[in-house]
Amino acid sequence: MEQEKINSLNPVTLAYIGDAVFSLYARMHVLESAEYRTGEFNKKVDSLVKATAQSAMLEAVLPQLSEEEKDVVRRGRNSRTPAKAKNSGLMDYKRATALEALLGWLYLKGDIKRLETLEKACVDAGEKR
Fold first, then answer.
1. What is the pLDDT of residues 37-93, one digit of tens each?
2. What is the CATH number of the domain that holds 15?
3. Cβ(11)–Cβ(97) below 8 Å
4. Based on the structure, what is the number of domains in the chain?
5. Maximum distance among all alpha carbons in the chain?
6. Residue 129 gets which letter from DSSP?
7. How far is CA 28 from the centre of its chain?
8. Domain limits at 14?
9. How far apart are CA 28 and CA 13, in angstroms?
10. Quick one: residue 81, left, alpha or beta (phi over 0 = left, psi -120 to 50 = alpha)?
11. Distance between CA atoms of 51 and 46, rounded to whole angstroms?
12. Is 19 annotated in the active site?
């Protein structure tokens, strides 16, 4: 996809892609880190992909972000989302959306090395919580 098109996408669309990308990364990380029963596996993955965890992850990686990445985060955080925060506060939900938008943006750009670096940093921060 062309950079101009990626940059013009609605941040909620970027977050939609980022949610899928990060969910798969979290599942693979949990799968590789230990052998769990299905229920334990789901619980561990859920602890990494829930909005409160992603909000904390964003705060942890924010100092590592470039200005361009911070702009994507700002767009994601300030976007109007069609969904409501279910199991988290509004600010956690907005920060989680911002993180997912960033991850979706990196994925669509094809910057997989940077994407994986940030995903790893996010999971490391999430596991320290």
1. 888 889 999 999 999 999 999 999 999 999 999 999 999 999 887 666 677 788 999
2. 1.10.1520.10
3. yes
4. 1
5. 44
6. -
7. 15
8. 3-128
9. 23
10. beta
11. 10
12. yes
pLDDT in tens, 108-122: 999 999 999 999 999
Alpha-carbon Rg for the chain, nearest whole angstrom, is 14
- Using an 8 Å Cβ cutoff, are 59 and 98 in contact? no
Does pLDDT of 98 surpass 90? Answer: yes
**pTM above threshold 0.70:** yes
Q: Which of 19, 46, 111, 124 is catalytic?
A: 19
3-class secondary-structure state, position 62:
helix
Alpha helices in the chain (DSSP H): 3-8, 11-33, 38-49, 51-61, 67-78, 90-109, 112-128
